[in-house]
Amino acid sequence: MGNLYPIYLNLEGQLCLVVGGGKVAERKIGSLLECGARVRLVSPQVTDQIKKWADLGQIELLQREYRPSDLTGSFLVFATTDNAEVNCQVARDCGERHLPVNVADNPTHCSFFVPSVIRRGKLSIAISTGGSSPKLAAKIRRQLESQFGPEYAEFLDLLSDVRRQVLADVEDIGQRQAIFYSLVESDILDLLKNKKYDQVKERLKNAYSGYRS
């Protein structure tokens, strides 16, 4: 296998099929719902959490065995059953239809892999070992979680707000870049971490007020 091409997908409103109703499927569904995907799940048995999602109308549940027709309209497919034959059949059906498929615990049948992800608001950091060792990816994620704390979510929200103001108020592209650079290289992250919000406001004000047209 060659190098994988990293990509972030917009799943808002996209139909994703999950075949299997155990804990692995539950984790996949949770991540998909966080991204705004529509989820169809096919499995004779499901966990209590999956049943709850279905009862609340958050997912479409087909409580029966998998059928190839279940793939209709799917954007992504996840095979998560504990039956290798069923998972392989899902992978074959997806291959015939040119549908991206992820097969739990079988990298050879995957056309895409789900990375281990750190989320801090709008910041997401994905770690992948190309299916070679999910445990190592999880270990690296835990290491990075301590490095990138919740202050990064606050910082990105601030940067987003300031960016809109700068684009509206500052015409010169060079000045805009100087402002953005000064913010990113400032001590705002440390101030946020220590909840020194008055000083944060002062830094933001000083960063671009002199450039406003």
TrEMBL record:
<keyword id="KW-0627">Porphyrin biosynthesis</keyword>
<protein>
    <recommendedName>
        <fullName>precorrin-2 dehydrogenase</fullName>
        <ecNumber>1.3.1.76</ecNumber>
    </recommendedName>
</protein>
<keyword id="KW-0520">NAD</keyword>
<dbReference type="InterPro" id="IPR028161">
    <property type="entry name" value="Met8-like"/>
</dbReference>
<dbReference type="GO" id="GO:0019354">
    <property type="term" value="P:siroheme biosynthetic process"/>
</dbReference>
<dbReference type="GO" id="GO:0043115">
    <property type="term" value="F:precorrin-2 dehydrogenase activity"/>
</dbReference>
<dbReference type="Pfam" id="PF13241">
    <property type="entry name" value="NAD_binding_7"/>
</dbReference>
<dbReference type="GO" id="GO:0004325">
    <property type="term" value="F:ferrochelatase activity"/>
</dbReference>
<feature type="domain" description="Siroheme synthase central">
    <location>
        <begin position="120"/>
        <end position="147"/>
    </location>
</feature>
<dbReference type="InterPro" id="IPR036291">
    <property type="entry name" value="NAD(P)-bd_dom_sf"/>
</dbReference>
<dbReference type="InterPro" id="IPR042518">
    <property type="entry name" value="SirC_C"/>
</dbReference>
<keyword id="KW-0560">Oxidoreductase</keyword>
<dbReference type="Pfam" id="PF14824">
    <property type="entry name" value="Sirohm_synth_M"/>
</dbReference>
<dbReference type="InterPro" id="IPR006367">
    <property type="entry name" value="Sirohaem_synthase_N"/>
</dbReference>
<comment type="pathway">
    <text>Porphyrin-containing compound metabolism; siroheme biosynthesis; sirohydrochlorin from precorrin-2: step 1/1.</text>
</comment>
<dbReference type="InterPro" id="IPR028281">
    <property type="entry name" value="Sirohaem_synthase_central"/>
</dbReference>
